[in-house]
Amino acid sequence: MLRSVKDLIGYPIETVDGRIGKVKDALFDDRYWRLRYMVADTGTWLPGKKVLLTPYHLKKLETGWIGNGIKTDLTKDQLEGSPELKTDAPVCMQYEEEYAKYYDLPSYWMDPYLFGGSTVPPGMAAEVTPKSEADRQAHEFRMRQIEGKHLRSAHEILGYDIEANDDSFGHVEDFIIEEENWRLQYLVIDTTNWLPGGSSLIDIGWVEGFDWRNKTAKVDLLRKQIEMAPRFDPFDPVNVDKHQKLYDYYGKPRDYDAPAAPMF
Fold it and tell me: What confidence tens digit (pLDDT) does each residue in 214-253 have?
């Protein structure tokens, strides 16, 4: 069964001995398109702490996502001992942390409202300490290392502009995930700023990559293909017939025999 990742964010989380916090984000691997972690915001229970939950500890979605919360097989004590977000941060956070270190900025990436929504405090850019050539090269090396990592934040990417092969068009509205294997199956493109009538659905495998600096998602499609694609209705479930129509329209095969990806 297919589920919306966007809808998942904000769901309350239930341990075996009570409800704590809510889903803050979903982290996925953009090599295998697997969900790797749910980010749990523990709210007033553990103020300021965001912990990681692997799908291994989540119960079947039929028992959690359709109800009033996402159920886990963990106790509160076990969840308290779970790794914090900073132990396996998504690419966007690693970029921002390295950027802050290099330009002597406060850790604004931990609180986007620290400077009234601006990523750089007023006047800070003029106070940057000049860096040596060795520092610059070390910074560029670390940035290249981050480029090679693949853990992405769904919350970060929602809203990214779509960069087609011939034009920029629409933005990322949602991801659709298969609950049986925790694999992202589709990306939902919102085209309402250009076309009336809603959104378009594309196979996640047609996404070539994400650009953190420019906030874009590159897709292997033409603008006209997306413009003319069948409209996607989030209230109308995606079934087998619609799957086939989608691939028939784009003239692209669905790779049912793709190599198995690591689950977690």
Answer: 999 999 999 989 888 888 887 776 665 667 788 889 988 8
Separation of alpha carbons 60 and 237, rounded Å: 19
> Encoding tokens for residue 43?
């709210």
Nearest to 174 by CA among 155, 190, 156, 188: 188
Q: List Cβ neighbours of 53 (8 Å cut-off, separation of 6 or more).
A: 13, 37, 38, 39, 40, 72, 74, 79, 82
Instruction: Please report, as a single letter, which amino acid is at residue 213.
Output: R
Who's near 145: CB < 8 A, 6+ residues apart?
none
Q: How many domains does the chain have?
A: 3
Q: What single-letter DSSP state applies at residue 84?
A: B
* CATH number, position 239: 2.30.30.240
Say if 255 falls within a structural domain.
no
Phi, psi of 83 (to 5 degrees): -60, 145
